[in-house]
Design goal:
Blueprint (H helix, E strand, L loop, with lengths): L4 H36 L9 H20 L11 H24 L7 H35 L5 E6 L3 H12 L1 H4 L1 E8 L14 E4 L3 H8 L3 E4 L9 H7 L6 E4 L3 H5 L13 E3 L6 H21 L1 H14 L5 E7 L5 E7 L23 H9 L6 H6 L4 E3 L6 H10 L12 E3 L1 H5 L6 H16 L3 H16 L5
Helix pairs in contact: 1-2, 1-4, 2-3, 3-4, 11-12, 14-16
Length: about 475
């Protein structure tokens, strides 16, 4: 199925583009036969000139950009047709308003009624054509699922009564859900598992990384017993570094508190979202990261050069310091900083720095005070390894130490690491593992409340700290 994802996205892009061309052509025809006829008194000759071609190119690129920013082309195979139509309506309404102000508002009209008619003609055209094409594609996908030509490799976590009941229920709905159970993972070490008569035992929950990779798992469903609920957090933490869809059987509190949505007539399940912020905010955040980083590197280029020269003169060794850090989903990358320590600072192994650390050069102390040593990390931002705002990246060595005390550290790797963070603003640099764990709570608060407004808030406080020289 994974091999068909790009083809399916290409189909949606093609038909969305075709819908845009049809809609603009209808608008163009309407303007010629109605608006300009009223103006001139006769129907002008309809010529598909440069203005028409420009409108076609502009609106097509505009709509594809809208769909991409809003995340429409993500998770392309699993979506409700009714929800897709609702999403298409919202996109069409929002986009049509923008097109109206850009392309329609400057038209000469006999009355304001012509504006309204032009807008609604275009809105109805773009909505209906796009919705029809999308409905055809999603219907074809659903038919492939029903014919079992398309399925999603699914892992069941759990092994007893609840797992058996859920498995049996989902097997009845397989023609509509597309779940293909390849096996189960247990949370307790027992000899006999009730679900083993239906599914092969692929291993324990501590082996989830291996199981998911070996069997191409796309969806995980957690169905563990009440007495095993204490392990839920550990199971979910084990899935943080993966991109699989995660669902869990709700308890009565989840249902009463409104966490369970009536998304289908099947088994009630809570989906644990990997997505922290809306797709359009992700795109906006990335655009801001790149734009701000490029501008800052250009504006501060004299400071960049001065800092590089001073670093070279301060002590023997390279100007830049590169070190392996863990990024999004635990992927390693080389972080770049101006070297603030003597070149043999870690000859005895990994060490955290402190305010009185003798390994820091005199110039290094100045750089750290004003965080000048972090300037090269804007290059990491441009290459996509980091963001301006996000939890500070750690080394594998310290990740292992933190996980031993705080297993929920894995949540931090759901987002790109950053040059500055809420943890850096509220706590600052950590001098030991206990302080790293203490700072972690601020990073988790940021992740659970992640949005563009909070990013600007953190950036503002960081600028204040830098200008006041309160770095360390």
């Amino acid at each position: 199925m994974k091999k068909n994802v790009r083809l399916q996205v290409a189909k949606y892009v093609f038909f969305d583009g075709l819908a845009s061309i049809i809609s603009y052509t209808l608008l163009y025809y309407f303007r010629k036969t109605v608006i300009e006829t009223t103006k001139l008194g006769v129907t002008p000759e309809i010529i598909f000139d440069k203005r028409y071609l420009f409108g076609i190119a502009f609106t097509t690129l505009f709509w594809l950009l809208i769909y991409w920013i809003t995340g429409f082309y993500q998770d392309i195979f699993r979506r409700s047709r009714l929800r897709e139509i609702a999403q298409t309506f919202n996109q069409a309404l929002f986009g049509s308003v923008i097109v109206f102000f850009i392309l329609i508002l400057d038209d000469w009209v006999a009355s304001y009624r012509d504006y309204y008619e032009s807008f609604f003609t275009y809105f109805i055209a773009i909505f209906l054509t796009t919705a029809i094409f999308r409905f055809m594609l999603s219907t074809a996908t659903n038919r492939n699922i029903q014919k079992r030509k398309l399925w999603f490799n699914t892992l069941l976590i759990g092994s007893n009564e609840k797992a058996v009941a859920l498995y049996n229920e989902l097997q009845k709905q397989r023609r509509t859900t597309g779940n293909y159970f390849v096996g189960f993972a247990s949370v307790q070490q027992k000899i006999d598992f009730l679900v083993e008569k239906d599914l092969p035992h692929l291993g324990g929950y501590r082996e989830l990384g291996r199981i998911i990779k070996e069997h191409g798992i796309e969806e995980v469903i957690i169905a563990i017993e009440s007495q095993e609920h204490g392990m839920i957090e550990e199971v979910i933490n084990s899935l943080e570094d993966t991109s699989v869809r995660v669902k869990i059987i709700p308890d009565m509190y989840d249902i009463i508190s409104g966490q369970v949505r009536m998304q289908s007539l099947g088994a009630p399940l809570i989906e644990i979202k990997h997505e922290i912020i809306a797709p359009w905010q992700q795109v906006t955040k990335r655009v801001f990261d790149v734009t701000f980083s490029l501008l800052l590197l250009i504006i501060l280029s004299p400071m960049f050069i001065f800092t590089a020269v001073m670093t070279r003169l301060s002590s023997p060794g390279p100007i830049f310091y590169r070190q392996k850090r863990l990024g999004l989903h635990g992927k390693e990358f080389n972080i770049i900083k101006f070297r603030s320590m003597f070149s043999d600072a870690e000859k005895t192994g990994p060490q955290l720095s402190s305010e009185e650390d003798e390994r820091i050069t005199p110039w290094g102390r100045v750089m750290r005070k004003y965080r000048l040593d972090e300037l090269p990390q804007f290059l990491n931002v441009i290459t996509g390894e980091m963001s301006i705002i996000g939890p500070r990246p750690e080394r594998q060595f310290y990740k292992d130490l933190i996980l031993a005390k705080a297993p929920h550290y894995r949540h931090v790797q759901k987002v790109k690491p950053g040059i500055t963070s809420w943890g850096m603003v509220k706590f600052g640099y950590a001098e030991n593992v206990d302080e790293m764990v203490e700072r972690l709570k601020y990073d988790l608060i940021y992740i659970e409340n992640m949005n563009l407004l909070n990013d600007f808030k953190i950036l503002f406080y960081t600028v204040v700290i830098v200008l006041q020289g309160r770095g360390k």
